[in-house]
Amino acid sequence: KQEVTQIPAALSVPEGENLVLNCSFTDSAIYNLQWFRQDPGKGLTSLLLIQSSQREQTSGRLNASLDKSSGRSTLYIAASQPGDSATYLCAVENNNDMRFGAGTRLTVKP
Amino acid sequence: KAGVTQTPRYLIKTRGQQVTLSCSPISGHRSVSWYQQTPGQGLQFLFEYFSETQRNKGNFPGRFSGRQFSNSRSEMNVSTLELGDSALYLCASSFPGPEQFFGPGTRLTVL
């Protein structure tokens, strides 16, 4: 059974810092890995999706990497802004089953 | 292109009642997945429908059921509500393509 872990559970940084969020998974036979952000009480917004054959994806200030062999993914956020404050979730899909981590709650202080 | 829509956005029910939630996927998307999110358990997969057929199912009791219509809209039903069913219910649509797009969710409170 796939288990997804996100570390740290919470992170607080000053505006402008670069930061890294971590996601690890136990079964490396994945189809893809997706990063989402969730604002309080809201749905999920897709940020980046990495297919199993890919190593990384970039969108604006975000860069996500995938290392299947070690069961790890990182989400790098450059030049953080207060508007980046949210919970970030990673989700791993295999066999039509998507498993989510518990998320990292990010606070960016002005 | 309109996003995933869910109705109602908020719902209050009492124990023992039943509830039906609705999800309209992004136009052209054929797969709809449902999730339950609670503070204690996080996001948990309920089931996925593709072309009106349930393709995958999570580990939830039979009180939780769903269906998908020919226009890809989906409904989920929870019968005999329990206090522990209070949660944010999210649906997501996809296909073609693996990326999942989520709706805003339905906040269900069971009293």
Which key phrases capture this entry?
heterodimer; A: 110 residues; mainly beta; 5-stranded antiparallel sheet; B: 111 residues; globular
Radius of gyration of chain A: 13 Å
- Greatest chain-chain contact: A-B, 24 and 24 residues
Point out poorly predicted stretches of chain B: none
| DSSP strand content of chain B | over 45%
Q: What is the mean pLDDT of chain A?
A: 94
N- to C-terminal distance of chain B: 37 Å
Strand-residue proportion of chain A: over 45%
**Secondary structure: helix percent of chain A:** under 10%
**Backbone structural class of chain A:** mainly beta
SSE sequence of chain A, one letter per element: EEEEEEEEEEE
Could you walk me through the main structural features you see in this protein, from its secondary elements to its overall organization?
The complex is a heterodimer of chains A (110) and B (111). Chain A has 110 residues and is mainly β. Chain A is 0% helix and 60% strand. Chain A contains no helices and eleven strands. In chain A, the strands form two sheets. In chain A, strands 2, 4, 5, 9, 10 and 11 form a six-stranded mixed sheet that branches. In chain A, strands 1-3-8-7-6 form a five-stranded antiparallel sheet, with no helix packed on it. In chain A, a hairpin with a 2-residue loop joins strand 9 and strand 10. Chain A is globular. The termini of chain A are far apart. In chain A, 34% of the residues are buried. The model of chain A has no long low-confidence stretch (mean pLDDT 94). Chain B is an all-beta fold and 111 residues long. In chain B, the strands form two sheets. In chain B, strands 2, 4, 5, 6, 9, 10 and 11 form a seven-stranded mixed sheet that branches. A four-stranded antiparallel sheet of chain B has the order 1-3-8-7, with no helix packed on it. In chain B, strand 4 and strand 5 form a beta hairpin. In chain B, 35% of the residues are buried.
